[in-house]
């Protein structure tokens, strides 16, 4: 099992970053995301919005991976999130639904309002392979390395959505 943990501070306010987080697909930094669909959305009696989305991602296998390890280099991802507007917190968990013997990836993202009006993002991820054949550690290390490399692209995609939202807000206000 491999782990990843990172925090990042956005200068933007929590409501704006939270909205951008849910509007981040599609964007040019996430060309691997084929589709993103809301499966369910409810609001709890305490005002927390609970959403489940189904995401299809496409990728590629490393050249050293055995032929036939997966029929397609794409995976269905389930994303479960809670938005607590009273406390200024978004909690989101994603995990792959298929290819779990080859690699199971679970990611937790928290967006927290800070006292100075910014937004703190905490990302944690776990990578577990049960493939065997002496490839377990190699698959986990490869997945962790790709995840680390893609974290910056994810942030760039979210930042693009933030810029577009501020631009659109300005256009609507000037109108």
From TrEMBL:
InterPro entries: PRELI/MSF1_dom, Slowmo/Ups. GO terms for cellular component: mitochondrial intermembrane space. Residues 1-170 form the PRELI/MSF1 domain. It holds the Pfam family PRELI. PANTHER family: MSF1/PX19 RELATED. This is PRELI/MSF1 domain-containing protein.
């Amino acid at each position: 099992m491999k782990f990843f943990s990172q925090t990042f501070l956005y200068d933007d306010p929590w409501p704006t970053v939270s909205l951008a987080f849910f509007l981040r697909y599609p964007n040019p930094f996430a060309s691997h995301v084929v589709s993103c669909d809301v499966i369910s959305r409810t609001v709890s009696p305490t005002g927390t919005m609970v959403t489940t989305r189904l995401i299809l991602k496409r990728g590629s296998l490393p050249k050293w991976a055995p032929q036939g390890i997966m029929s397609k280099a794409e995976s269905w991802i389930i994303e479960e999130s809670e938005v607590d507007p009273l406390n200024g917190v978004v909690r989101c968990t994603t995990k792959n639904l298929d290819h779990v013997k080859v690699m199971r990836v679970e990611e937790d993202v928290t967006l927290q309002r800070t006292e100075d009006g910014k937004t703190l993002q905490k990302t944690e991820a776990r990578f577990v392979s049960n493939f065997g054949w002496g490839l377990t550690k190699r698959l986990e290390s490869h997945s962790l390395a790709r995840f680390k490399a893609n974290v910056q692209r994810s942030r760039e995609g979210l930042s693009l959505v933030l810029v577009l939202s501020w631009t659109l807000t300005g256009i609507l206000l000037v109108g």
